[in-house]
Specification:
CATH topology: Immunoglobulin-like
Distance between the termini: 77 Å
Number of helices: 1
CATH architecture: Sandwich
Radius of gyration: 23 Å
Strand content: 35-45%
Amino acid sequence: MSIKPPHRIALVAAIAALVLVPAALAGKPGGSGGTSSFSLVLMDGATQPTHYGRITFNVSTTATATPSVGLRCYQGANFVYDSYVGYFPAYMFDQWFTLRSNYWVDGVPATCNARLFYNDRRGRENVLATMSFTVAP
């Protein structure tokens, strides 16, 4: 077994520190340094979210250039709605949600969970903020 001179060990440790520290400090894309928020916006003169109503969100984030909102709704334990909208200029579709589906039961309130997120380079969803609200029957 050979023992390396102390100066070689110190040099190897210094190089390892230079390589590893920037990677550790870089964080995820958009990382924790960004700020994000979103708020519910009722459409068509509504005073509360309702079944068959339309809603959208005011989105603000410095964490990504391509934020999206995912919305899932439940009536009790039954999953009744799942939809996604992009809130960035290149998004090609309507930027609102219509609260209806073939599974939604008329006359029953629903609980909806919204999440503001972006997809990283590997396609993983990175949640920036969440909110819940009730949809009237």
